[in-house]
Every structure is written in C-alpha cells, then in structure tokens.
Design goal:
about 400 residues, Porin, 4 helices, 16 strands
Length: about 400
C-alpha cells in the first residue's frame, strides 16, 4: 500500500513538472515581445557606438597628430655631397695642390602643397667650414628656393631662386650622375656652373619629344678688370638688379638615348648701370648626349659674346669673346664599373688673337658605383696652359653620394 501511494505521488510530481516546463501560447508571445524589445535596444546601442566611433575618428583626423602625419607625407628631404683628394703637381710656377676637401654638403627640402603647387630648395655648405678668416674657406649658399605651379597640362611655372636652364651639368650635378672627381672645366669657367638666379620661369612640352624652358631672372655683375664671367655670379645675395637677363632653351629627346639642346642667354648690361658705358652679353650653348647600351658620349660647346665697349684694359684684353668645348666618351664595363675620357678646351680671352690664353685638359679615369647613388671616383688630369697661366697635372680621388 505504501509503495502504491509513493508511486502515485512521484507520477503526480512528474506531470506537474512537465506541465510547468512547456509555456502556453500567451507566454510564448510575451517572450517574443521581450526578445524583440531587447534586439531593438541593442540596435540602438550599436548606432550610438558607431556615432561615437565616427566622431572619435573625425576628432583624431583633425587633431595635431593627423596634421603632422599629413605634413610628413607631403614633405621630402634629400641631399648629396662629395669629398675630394687632389694630388696635383704645379707647372708654370704654380704650387702643388695636395689636399683633402669636403667639397660640398647639400640638403634638399621640398613640400607638396597641392597636386599642382609645390616647393623645392637646396641648401649647401662648400668646403666644410664657412666664416671670416682665411682658415674658413667655405661658403653657405641657398642654390634653390622656389615655388612651382602646374598651370596647364605638361606646362609649369616657377618663381624664386632656381638653376639657370643651360648646359648638361648646371641643373643635374649630383656626383653619381657624372664622370670625373671634379666637374668639367668648360662648364665651370665658361657657362659658369653652378649658376643660379632669382626670377620667374616656365617650362613644358610643346610637341612629342620637344620641350622648352624660358626664364626672366637676375643677371651677372662684371666689373672692369674681372674679365671672367664666373666672377660675375651674384648668387641672389643683395644682387644688383639694374639690368636683368633672359634665358631660353629648346630640347629634343624624341629618339631613344638621344638628347639635343640649345640655350641662349642675353643681358643688356653686365655692369648693372655702375658705369657710364654698358656691356651687353650673349651666351650661346649647345650640347648633345647619346647613349646606346653601355656606351655614352657627351659633347658641349659654349660661347660668350660681350660688347667690348670698355673691355679694352690690359686685364680685360680679349674677354669680349669667351668660349670652350669638350667631348666625353664613356663605357660601363659592368653595372657598377665605368671608364671615361674627356678632352676639354676653353679660353676666357678668346677675342684677342695676340694673347695666348687657351687652356686644354685631358681627363681619364673610372667610376665605381657601390649603389646606384653612391660612387667612388679616380681620374688623372693633364693640363696644357700658356706660361702665364697656372697648370696642374696629377691624380684626383673622390667619393660622392645622393639620396
């Protein structure tokens, strides 16, 4: 009897439990409503979270950190430099030149304001140490500082301090781009590189393979007795600006490996109004570069024609005409090793046939590129100069880099 009652009690408890575990239709509807309300609440929380994330991202974007990051992305830093060792024996009474020199150390800074407007500059220290005194032979120079604007497709304009568009080396003179420890004497003494002025310029493409450069800029200042054009560079340092200059260049690169270019520079008075007489000056320059495989040849001719109205003193004799040329074949034996030879001839007093003032120089040597922009150089120079001019023959060694 007791067992039967116990069995009935357990069966009743099970039935009651089973009945409680199964919700009614009304209870299920209430549960669904509650779940739907919870889902809506969660969606609202997610939207609020997304809005906070977006607001936070916008705040970060407008913060100083984001501004600095944007500035860094639009600003470029570069540079180049070279150190030389010269072991040269003096001739014609010239002293020997045995020295080591950090010839130049250059830093370049640029900034992209917009897709069409940018800034570029070049800051240079020559000969390592600048200041007063003979023991500080260097100079601190700003060779370039200009704003460039792409005002039309394939055409741009610049304003500020820039390199004059002339010759092969004046605009491209990083040490890894040319042969020889020292820059060639023709472009140094005749053009004269490196030559920069202040003004405005325009450049662009006029047809397939044809480009132009046109610049209106500050001019040279040559005093009587200082007949070399190189001495007339004012470097835009409180430069006399009584008379400016105009430079125009046309260039052809329509054939693979070939560059042909011609430049004209004209100035009405290189004395900048400081004399009762005026001396106008015209520079004509033409060059050719041809590269096929490992072989390259460069040739350049430059000539100044100066009005000889006052160039008649003994110190200026013949300086109404100044001219020079060079030819340079080179060959890359390997990707890293190249050899070259160069014949140079120049005369800063070519207008007087009675004055022996023509100089000649032969350079032979090699370049070894540790990387495409790091180079070791060695060359031998042999000068031939009149007895009234200094002459030095010997070995030059160098290391150069750019980045």
């Amino acid at each position: 009897m007791k067992k039967s009652l116990l069995a009935l009690a357990l069966a009743g408890l099970y039935a009651s439990s089973a009945s409680a575990a199964t919700p009614t239709v009304e209870e299920m509807w209430q549960m669904i409503q509650q779940q739907q309300a919870e889902i809506s609440r969660l969606k609202g929380d997610q939207k609020a979270t997304d809005a906070k994330v977006e607001a936070t991202a916008e705040t970060i974007e407008n913060s100083s950190i984001a501004s600095v990051a944007e500035w860094v992305n639009k600003t470029t830093v570069g540079g180049y430099g070279e150190m030389h060792i010269n072991q040269l024996e003096g001739q014609n009474g010239a002293s020997d030149k045995n020295e080591i020199d950090l010839h130049r150390f250059v830093l370049m800074f640029g900034h992209q304001f917009t897709d069409d407007v940018r800034f570029f500059s070049e800051f240079e220290i020559e000969h390592s140490l600048a200041g007063d005194g003979s023991d500080k032979p260097g100079e601190v120079e700003v060779e370039q500082a200009y704003i460039e604007w792409d005002y039309a497709e394939n055409h741009s304009a610049k304003a500020g301090v820039f390199l004059v568009p002339v010759g092969i080396m004046n605009e491209t003179h990083e040490p890894d781009t040319f042969y020889g420890t020292e820059r060639n004497p023709v472009e140094k003494n005749i053009i004269p590189s490196t030559w920069w002025e202040g003004g405005v310029a325009s450049s662009g493409e006029i047809a397939e393979g044809w480009s132009y450069d046109l610049a209106l800029h500050s001019g040279l200042y040559i005093e009587a007795g200082d007949f070399k054009v190189r001495g007339g560079r004012q470097k835009v340092a409180e430069a006399k600006a009584e008379d400016g200059a105009l430079t125009g260049r046309i260039k052809y690169t329509g054939i693979q490996g070939l560059e042909l270019a011609a430049t004209v520079n004209h100035q009405s008075d290189v004395h900048q109004g400081t004399s009762a007489s005026t001396v106008d000056a015209t520079l004509l320059e033409a060059h050719a570069i041809y590269q096929t495989g490992p072989f390259t040849v460069k040739a350049l001719y430059a000539m100044w024609d100066l009005d000889d109205a006052i160039l008649t003193t003994s110190g200026d004799a013949g300086s109404d005409e100044q001219e020079g040329f060079y030819i340079e074949p080179s060959y890359k034996l390997t990707e890293k090793l190249g050899i070259f030879a160069r014949y140079n001839q120049w005369d800063n007093q070519a207008g007087d046939s009675t004055v022996d003032s023509e100089l000649k120089q032969i350079d032979v040597g090699l370049n070894y590129w540790l990387t495409p922009t790091v180079v070791l150089k060695a060359d031998y120079q042999d000068q031939d100069a009149p007895t009234t001019f200094t002459e030095r023959d010997g070995l030059n060694l160098g290391v150069g880099w750019s980045f």
